[in-house]
Design goal:
4 helices, two-stranded antiparallel ribbon, 135 residues, 46% helix, elongated
């Protein structure tokens, strides 16, 4: 299991690590191989590091879901809260992903940028009463 982190602008893997908050390489939460697997699976579909990071956050939450809470000698440890925080992070990252999808080019009903009119088609006439039934 390898874990590296340098700069979030360098690679998609580092961007995903940054978004999840897994930048402490002394105790990484996920390996480079796991992140690269999720990048190869989700980046072609959704196209943003934010969406991939949300999937990574969900996988981290799933790891903490299997951990048991315990208490002994007046000390209690509840890992459920950590899992819930990563689930909330996943929701927040999906919201960021949706915000990145806003914009683009206008859709004007099948006309693409730079498209020219077909000279073999006679121009349509539009005017008052054009939908009136002559019969």
């Amino acid at each position: 299991m390898t874990a590296t982190y340098e700069n979030p602008t360098a690679t998609d893997k580092d961007a995903v690590r940054f978004l999840v908050g897994d930048t402490d390489m002394e105790s990484p939460l996920v390996s480079d191989e796991e992140i690269n697997y999720l990048i190869s699976k989700w980046m072609p579909v959704h196209g943003t590091a934010e969406y991939v990071a949300s999937v990574v956050a969900e996988s981290i939450a799933a790891r903490y879901a299997r951990e048991a809470s315990w208490s002994a000698d007046g000390v209690s440890v509840s890992l459920q809260n950590i899992g819930n925080q990563f689930r909330e992070l996943a929701v927040s990252l999906r919201s960021q992903h949706k915000n990145l999808l806003v914009g683009g080019s206008p859709d004007v009903g099948g006309i693409t940028t730079g498209e020219q009119a077909d000279p073999s088609i006679r121009p349509l006439d539009f005017g008052t009463g054009m939908h009136d039934n002559p019969e």
